[in-house]
Amino acid sequence: MRANAEMLSNLSPTTPVIADADTGYGGPIMVARTTEQYSRSGVAAFHIEDQVQTKRCGHLGGKILVDRDTYMTRIRAAVQARQRIGSDIVVIARTDSLQTHGYEESVARLRAARDAGADVGLLEGMTSKDMAKQAVRDLAPWPMLLNMVEHGATPSISATEAKEMGFRIIIFPFAALGPACTAIRDAMEKLQADGIPGLSKEMTPQMLFRICGLDESIKIDAAAGGAAFEGGVDLK
């Protein structure tokens, strides 16, 4: 998780990355280690939750929660670790307790996390727009994040609508994964049927390398007096 977070965080020096830290991967010592490593990897913010270590996706059933005191040790460990290393990484307190413990306990857990020093709240798996509005009101003025997983437990809410509700942050975890899954499946079915992927003429190796930063690499090499690309990169 840390390696993936570091790779994504370093794709762009100006684009903040919000990473999933799940349960923190253990007790307070491991939560502190996760916080420190995410911070040093360039992550801007991360959310940490109150499920047991062998957790499930927030939009699956059968989740099992730790008690509130255990959850608070995770939040405190993250906040204290950030303070120890002088980091400005944003700690997002996520609760998955709605499904098993109900709305009031979920809000109570988020209030406790807020009091323990968490910067942002995340009530996972809200089941209605009215509940989403209520959560923002009940925890105001604390910033709230909306996890917009389309076709999951939460009804579809656009970024504009979420802003009107009072959410300060919205994330779309499937925004890239969903289209990628569909495109890869369609391409493999075409390969199976036709014996060739049939990509568009624009989909060249050079184009893909340029998406990954080839032109910038050429400039860096040339500026340093290198000759790695002296012969060019385009096929003759």
TrEMBL record:
InterPro entries the UniProt entry points to: ICL/PEPM (IPR039556), Isocitrate_lyase_ph_CS (IPR018523), Pyrv/PenolPyrv_kinase-like_dom (IPR015813), Pyrv_kinase-like_dom_sf (IPR040442)
Keyword Cell division: no
Molecular functions per Gene Ontology: methylisocitrate lyase activity
Keyword line: Pyruvate
Alphabetized Pfam families for the sequence: PEP_mutase
Catalytic activity field: (2S,3R)-3-hydroxybutane-1,2,3-tricarboxylate = pyruvate + succinate
Lineage: superkingdom: Eukaryota
UniProt keyword Iron, yes or no: no
CDD domains: ICL_PEPM
Protein name: Phosphoenolpyruvate/pyruvate domain-containing protein
Organism: Aspergillus coremiiformis
Upper classification of the organism: Eukaryota, Fungi, Dikarya, Ascomycota, Pezizomycotina
